[in-house]
Amino acid sequence: MQPARYHPPVKRSVQIAGHKTSISLEPLFWDMLKEAAATDGLPINAVVARIDAERIKSETPPGLASAVRIWLVARRFGANSIMNGDNTKI
């Protein structure tokens, strides 16, 4: 049996800057986040905190869950082109 491609978001708690918050992401994105944290040798909370700090600097910051998704896709497909609006690689 194949794993489900489409699954509703799963809510999990993370701690950022000393406070707990929850993020709802699809299992695919949780898996990608775990992989990114392992690759960088960091806990998931530290990766999410880094993403949170980056998103807050944005002129129009997205919600945290959206920022995590964008960061993960940019990391996977090439941050420069995606973050600059060139989505031809996707």
How are the secondary structure elements laid out?
Blueprint: E1 10-16, E2 19-25, H1 27-40, H2 44-56, H3 64-77, H4 79-83
Antiparallel strand pairs: 1-2
Helix pairs in contact: 2-3
Shape: globular
Number of continuous helical runs: 4
Helix content: 40-55%
Largest sheet: 2 strands, antiparallel
Give the low-pLDDT segments: none
Q: Which sequence of SSEs, written as H and E, runs from N to C?
A: EEHHHH
Q: Strand order within the widest sheet?
A: 1-2
Instruction: State the separation between the terminal residues, measured CA to CA.
Output: 28 Å
How many E strands?
2
Structural class: alpha+beta
Please state the CA-atom Rg, rounded to the nearest Å: 14 Å
Average pLDDT metric: 87
- What fraction of residues sit in β-strands? 15-25%
